[in-house]
Amino acid sequence: MSVSFALSQERDLSVDEIKDLQREVRKLAEEKNAVILAHYYQRPEVQDVADFIGDSLELSRRAAETDADIIVFCGVRFMCETAKILNPTRKVLHPNPESGCPMADMVTAEQVRMLRQKHPDAVFVAYINTTADVKAEVDVCVTSANAPKIIKKLDAKKIVFLPDQALGGWIARQVPEKEFILWKGFCPPHFEFTAGEVMRLKERYPDAKVAVHPECHPKVIELADFVGSTSQIVRYATTVDAKRVIVITEVGLKYTLQKKNPEKEYIFPESMNYCGTVYCCTMKGITLPKVYETLRREINEVVLPEDIMERARRPIERMLQLS
Ligand code: SF4
To answer: Is the pTM of this model over 0.85?
Structure first.
């Protein structure tokens, strides 16, 4: 069956259209020896065509190991850049080049260079949610899954952590022997969850456990039974001894949780964020028609300058070794 969609004017697709398009995407992936990687926050219909679904760390590993000719990365821009840096001979395609991460854009390479001059004795640690230009300026990268473990191992007393102040503060509380200087960036969707909203959910569901992503505000983190990365939340929420789990992270994760353990009830906050939605709007900028069209025409290739790739690879590889 051939599929034809008005891709410039995306509209809601019917169930049959989605199924047809998913079949076409998988057929193209096989013909072109392409691997499709999708972040947990992607739309369900996009997750369903992926070879692998995961968080930043899991997908970085998959990207580094794959021998596919093409990597279609369904996530935000810094994730595609990381895939290209780790596997530069592959063609990496990003179904929506407009989908960046607002938090990653809160710090620039120039700002990192200036901070280096102020703190020449510090080790610079960047969350993986940074641009390739910023990664090229730092000593090591971390994800929310491995940050405390890696930072404990670093042979330095003073740590500059960027860009996420919430994640940085959570790490600092677990590594009290080190001094932290935190950049004041934040993840708009996570930082906008409030302690009041979590308290209301706890009152409404007193039997529920609370799992929180460390990009949330410290007052929200204080209310958690469990704090962890997206993949750690998946393990906790699907196996914890409780019928209900209040999950304070991006709502796209609900799909994975329900698939992994449909016996439990997963409750997500319903507050609107900076773009007037309950989800991360840049993550949801990847749509199934965009995945299809990107792979069919092999467009939206991620291209980075050689010297940036070379310099950005070192902190990422150091992270993979240390974790
Ligand atoms: S959820 Fe936050 S950190 Fe993730 S892409 Fe969206 S803005 Fe960036």
So the answer is: yes
